[in-house]
Structure formats: structure tokens, C-alpha cells
Design a protein that fits this description.
The protein is of the alpha+beta class and about 290 residues long. Helices cover about 20% and strands about 20% of the residues. It contains seven helices and twelve strands.
């Protein structure tokens, strides 16, 4: 690792072995279900390369970028590439709100077929030990170069009420997503931390005082205070990361023209009650 400085929400974090470590590739464990379950139970994530068909993922990417004015895309490239031109089309509705392509995408039939493909449910059944169902609210995230916008450090249990019952989050990158395009990162074994203790460790270090759900936007501070590293990877279309409600995760700012698009979907046992806030299609202004 060289002296590269990455950032998240504008705050820098050096890309060194003190702060970063690659996610472990668990793909080979798919042939050993009990070892796969053990890994998930011990580390609260699974990184599965090429779990989904790469061309199917790129079809969804293409479908999404086809919904934009071509001004968004670099001249001579295609919607399937999803490369930023440097220009945001005028009159584009606010991200993820009615009439924005992200709002339309999560209501699109092809997108629905993609996120409900049987192998996603089969994996959930294996990990949850029971037949599972999926929450209908499926956020779509789209981060653009140099906007210094990323996901703050948080755990999913704060956002989805489950009264301690297990559920799974799947993070699906909708295209290649190298580190500098702003992929998801996980604080190593942070499910072992007590959330209130973490909040005490980092004090009031937040750029969103009106929202007490995220832990902090300062990923460097969080790594230093906990002595834990951020797990990262250069994701590729087809990769899937599964995580538990308790592992702390965040994302990095993008400095890459390749636009970062992803969706995150949730599975829970079929008989468990649903948090009603997650029972409708996502919209970026639903505030849940
Ligand atoms: O994609 C992101 O940056 C955030 C996703 C997330 O928080 C999740 O999948 O739970």
C-alpha cells in the first residue's frame, strides 16, 4: 500500500495497513455450507465473488443509466459503462425522489426480477436456517466523483426494527467498483463492540447533529479509537457482500469517473414481523 489518501464525506484517511485490510474472499466456502455459516457467524460478513451473473448485473446498470439524459455520460461511452461526463443534466429531479431515475429503477420490473432471483433467497435460507422473505424497501445508491458524499459509519440494526431477531443485508454493486469509486467498507469484527461504548469513544464527532443514527463520518477516528481496520475490496459486477445488522460499515468518497451504483436488500425469516417502514418501495426522501 502506498501513501494514498482516501476520504469519506470529505475527511481523509490514509490508505495504509494501519487503517485498511482486504475483505476475505469467502467464495470457496459456498461448497462447504457449514464452514460458510461459521465464517458468517464469526465475522458477520461474507464476501462472495461472482455470486451473480456479471452480464445480468451490467444489464441493470445499463437500464439505470439509460434513464438519464446522455449529458451525464462521458462522450463515446455507453450507459452500460456508466462513466461520468463531469456534467449533471439540468432539471434532474433531486436524487431518488419521484421522477428521478433511481426512484423509477427500484420500481422497475427487471430490477425486481434481478433482486428476487432464487439464489439470493437460497443463500438467505442457509444463513438464517429458515425460509426467508425480502423487505420491499431496497435503496439504490449512486455516488459521483468529487462530490465528497458517502455513507457514514453505522449499523443496520439502528435503521430496521427487528427486536433482536436476525436479518441479513446484501450489498450488491451494480457495476465494477474499485476502492476509489467509493465501495462499502466494514470495520473489522466490530459486531463485538457495544454501540453505546462506541458512541462514547468518538464523542460528538458527527457532521449530522440532527440525526443520531449514524456513529460518525470520521472513519479515521473510529479506526484509531477502536484499534480496528476497515475491510475493503475492489468490487466487480457480480460480487455480493452479505452483512449482519451489527457490523459497522461505511463508504468512501468517489474520485473515479466510473459511477458507483449499488443496491442493498434485506432478508428475514418468513414468519418474522416486518418493520412497516421497510414495507414499501424506497424513495430517497422517505427518511427511514
Ligand atoms: O452503499 C452504501 O454506501 C451503504 C449501504 C449500506 O449501508 C448497507 O448496505 O447496509
Amino acid at each position: 500500500m502506498g501513501e494514498i489518501f482516501l476520504s469519506s464525506n470529505g475527511l481523509s484517511i490514509p490508505f495504509t495497513e494501519q487503517y485498511f485490510c482486504p475483505l476475505k474472499d469467502c467464495t470457496h466456502l459456498l461448497n462447504h455450507p457449514s464452514a460458510l455459516i461459521d465464517f458468517y457467524q464469526n465475522h458477520h460478513y461474507l464476501y462472495l465473488k461472482n455470486f451473480l451473473n456479471r452480464e445480468d448485473v451490467l444489464d441493470i446498470r445499463e437500464r439505470y443509466f439509460q434513464k438519464f439524459d446522455t449529458l451525464l455520460l462521458k462522450a463515446g461511452t455507453t450507459p452500460r459503462d456508466g462513466i461520468f461526463s463531469g456534467y449533471i443534466p439540468p432539471n434532474l429531479p433531486r436524487f431518488g425522489t419521484r421522477s428521478h431515475p433511481a426512484y423509477e429503477m427500484v420500481r422497475d420490473g427487471e430490477f425486481h426480477n434481478f433482486v428476487t432471483q432464487p439464489k439470493l433467497f437460497e443463500l438467505a435460507k442457509l444463513l438464517l436456517g429458515k425460509p426467508s422473505k425480502q423487505l420491499q424497501r431496497r435503496p439504490l445508491r449512486h455516488f459521483i466523483k468529487n462530490t465528497k458524499t458517502a455513507s457514514r459509519a453505522h449499523i443496520d440494526a439502528i435503521y430496521i426494527a427487528s427486536e433482536g431477531r436476525p436479518f441479513l443485508s446484501y450489498w450488491i454493486t451494480l457495476g465494477d467498483c474499485p476502492l476509489d469509486a467509493g465501495g462499502l467498507i466494514y470495520l473489522e469484527d466490530s459486531h463485538q463492540e457495544n454501540l453505546e461504548h462506541l458512541r462514547q469513544l468518538i464523542g460528538q464527532r458527527s457532521d449530522r447533529h440532527w440525526d443520531t443514527r449514524p456513529l460518525t463520518h470520521d472513519l479515521k477516528l473510529l479506526a484509531e479509537k477502536t484499534g480496528r481496520r476497515w475491510l475493503w475490496n475492489n468490487y466487480q459486477a457480480g460480487d455480493l457482500v452479505v452483512h449482519s445488522p451489527y457490523i459497522v460499515h461505511a463508504s468512501l468518497d468517489s474520485s473515479n469517473d466510473l459511477m458507483r451504483v449499488s443496491t442493498d436488500i434485506r432478508f428475514l425469516p418468513e414468519d418474522d414481523p416486518i418493520d412497516w417502514r421497510w414495507s414499501n418501495d424506497w424513495s430517497a426522501d422517505d427518511t427511514y
